[in-house]
Hints:
mainly alpha
Amino acid sequence: MKTTQQIVDSIDSRLRELNQEIATLDAARSALGTEPASRPAPQPAVAASPQPRKPARRRARRKPARSSDVVPAGRLELLLSENGGLTTSALAEQTNGNRDQVLTLLRELEAAGKIRRTGQRRGTRWHAITDEDRIRERAAELAGRRKRAA
């Protein structure tokens, strides 16, 4: 194990070598006819307690911009009628559309009674309402009326 004095001597020797290299590079720059850039004078080594480091701030990653198409509501209805329940993200991917725009259209179609949703949050799936669904709903409504009337 090195002693403190050996470590200090090693650092001093390395600093001398680096200063010689800097002088050589400055001479080469002068030979090329350019002005040396102002360089701060080397600071003497000070044995002080290290400063506590601040945690590095993370930069927010920007998602790469991807071009998206305007998605017509009819296209969403067609996809939902051909497939079972699909997520908003899956529909946006299949139509190359913006997820927020697709979600807005899906909510409008739901309000119009053309599609329905199942699940919650990330488990939400969208389904087309078929004629069979409408018949089943109407039959349940009529059966409920009959039970109340009896």
